[in-house]
Amino acid sequence: MTSKAQTSAVKSALTIHSVLSPAKTTEVYDSYWRFASIRQEVFFNRLEEKPYPWTSDPIINKYKFTNVYRAADRVSQYLIKHVIYNENLPDSPKEVLFRILLFKLFNKIETWELLNLKIGTITFEDYDFDLYDSILTAAIASGRRIYSAAYIMPSGKSYFGFVRKHTNHLKLIELILKKQTHEKLMFAKSMQQAFEIIKNFPSLGDFLAYQLLIDLNYSPIINFSESEFVVPGPGAKGGISKCFSDSAGLSNVEIIKLMTDRQEKEFERLGLSFKSLWGRRLQLIDCQNLFCEVDKYARVKHPQIKGNSERLRIKQVFKASSKPINFWFPPKWGINKNIQPLKSNSISEGLWSNSGESN
Question: What range(s) does the 5-hmdU DNA kinase helical domain occupy (predicted)?
Fold first, then answer.
C-alpha cells in the first residue's frame, strides 16, 4: 500500500466534530442535504405505494439517481438476498467469497442469472474455468452485455494475459481464492486491514477495492462498521469540489467524515425531516455516494458551479420498471424487523438501478 493510501486510511479513522469554519461552502452544500432528504422521501413514498410524482423536485423526478443508502440499491439488494444469504447455496466463507467476487466483478444481475441458468447451482467446489469462460464468451458473441456500466473495470490483461476481459477476471477470482483470502479477511483487525488485503490483488485499485470491501462487509465473512473507513471515488471528489469552494486543508476523507458526523445538525439547521433507513443513520459509504449523486444533481440545479468535474449533463433519465424489490438487509444490522409494517414492502426497481455512470 502506498504512503498516500496509508495516510488516507489513517485519516478515515478520525472523528471530526468541529464547525465548518474556516472551510467555505457553496450553495451546493445545502443542496447536498436537501437532495438526501428528498431522495429518501421518494424512497419511502414509493415503498408506501403513493402515486407518482413522489416529489415536487423536477430534477429527481426526471433523472435516475442511486438510493441514499447504498445497500438499498437494486444491485446491492440482489447481492445481499440472492448471492450472499441464499439458503440454497453453501454458506462457508470460501463459497460466499467466491459468489461475491463472481457477482461483483461483473456487477450485473443478468450475468449472474445467465450463469445460474446455464450451470445450475453456482459453487466454487464445482467451478470449471472452461465452462464459465465459454458461457460468457458465447454471451458476448450474441451481442449481450455482461458488465454493468456503473464501474469501469480494468481488463487485467497486463497481469493475466488474456484478450477477453471476463477471462482475466475469472483468473483473478481463482487467484484470490487460491491465496486463501477468506481466511485472511476473517482475521483482519480493521476495515483498513481488510482493504489492504483486497487491494493487493492485480487490477483492483483503491476505489474498486473499497467497493468490493463494502460488499464483503454485508456478508458474515467480516463485520466492520461502515463508518470506520472510506475511500472517495472520482464522482465523490467532484461533488466535494462543488460543495466546498475552500476545504481549508481538509482531505476528501476528512470531509466525508465531517458530513457523516454532522448529518443530524445539518438536517435540523435546514428544517429537513430526514427519514433514516429504519433507524440506521447515514454511514461513510452513503455520504461518499451522496457526493457522487450531488455532483450529477448540481449539473442541472447549479450549472454555474463547475468544481473539478468536467461533465455537464446527467446521462440517464428515470424509467420505472415493473420488477419489485422486497427489501432485506444484512441480518447483523438488526433493521429487518422494522420493515414489515410498510404495506407490501416492495417497489419497482427503476429509480434504484445503478446510475450507469462510474463513481
Answer: 26-307
pLDDT at residue 10 is higher than 50: no
Residue 195 lies in a domain: no
> What total of structural domains would you count in the chain?
2
DSSP annotation of 221 reads S
Residue range of the domain that includes 163:
86-180
- Torsion 20-26-29-34 (CA) sign: positive
Indicate if 26 and 136 belong to the same structural domain. Answer: no
- Cα–Cα nearest to 348, from 51, 29, 96, 17: 51
Please give the backbone phi and psi of residue 326, each rounded to the nearest 5 degrees, phi first: -100, 110
Neighbours of 332 (CB within 10 A): 11
Digit-coded pLDDT (tens) for 88-99: 999 999 999 999
Do 108 and 172 reside in the same domain of the chain?
Answer: yes
Q: Tens of pLDDT along 278-330?
A: 999 999 999 999 999 999 999 999 999 999 977 888 988 988 765 678 899 99
296 CB-contact burial (10 Å; exposed 0-12 / middle 13-18 / buried 19+):
buried
**Rounded CA separation 41/116 (Å):** 35
Which helix H or strand E contains 326, and what residues bound it? strand 324-326
- Crossing angle of helices 284-301 and 27-47, rounded to 10°: 110
Phi-psi region of 156 (alpha: psi -120 to 50; beta: other; left: phi over 0): left
Domain boundary among 144, 160, 180: 180
Q: Sign (positive/negative) of CA torsion 257, 262, 267, 269?
A: negative
Among 156, 180, 204, the domain boundary falls at: 180
